[in-house]
Structures are given as structure tokens and as C-alpha cells.
Amino acid sequence: MEIGDMKIHQLHEALNRSVTGKAGEGKGSASFEKMMKEAVDKVNGMERDANRSIGALLEGKADVHEAMMAIQKADISMRLLLTVRNKVIDAYKEIMHMQF
Question: Which residues of 55-77 are buried (b: 16+ CB within 10 A; e: fewer)?
């Protein structure tokens, strides 16, 4: 192993420790994966709530304002999730184009 290789290896270990909190374990990606799954589940729940409120509105059991608020809440959450997804994809593409 050359000196340059050793520095790269040490940098990799330091980055791994800063992301995971421990050396040699890849839990940083697992926590990001968990966070994204939770976000998708929350947005999905908001979509279901909006659909329920629309059904209740059609049956005459809900107020128009409540239904509109549920729909807007679901819409804003979906837009935020899509924006985060697009930023992650852009970052991934940028990393893939890097040359070391």
C-alpha cells in the first residue's frame, strides 16, 4: 500500500465513522433508507386521509374546508417528497460523474 492509498483509506474510514458513528459499519445508508420509507408512508397516509375526506364530503358528512385542507396538505407533502427525491437523484448523478 502506498502513502496515497493509505491516506485515501484513512479518509474513507473517517467519513464512514462520521456517517455511521462507528468504524467499518454501513448504517448511514440504512438510516437514510428508513427515513425515506417513513416519509413515503406519511405522504401515503395523508393521501388516504384526503381521499377519505373527499368521500365524506360527497356523502355530506364533512365540511368543504376540512376536505380542502386535507387535499392541500397531501399535495404539499407530495411536492416536498418529489423535490427531495429529485435532489437525491441529482446528487447521485453528480457523484457518478466525479473522477477520482
Answer: eebeeeebeeeebeebbebbeeb
Type of residue numbered 23: A
Number of helices (H), then strands (E), belonging to the chain: the values are 3, 0
Q: How far apart are CA 45 and CA 37, in angstroms?
A: 12
Element (H, E) at 2: none
Residue 74: pLDDT band (50, 70, 90) is very high
Question: pLDDT category, 18, cuts 50, 70, 90?
Answer: low
Alpha-carbon distance of 71 to 56, in angstroms, equals: 13
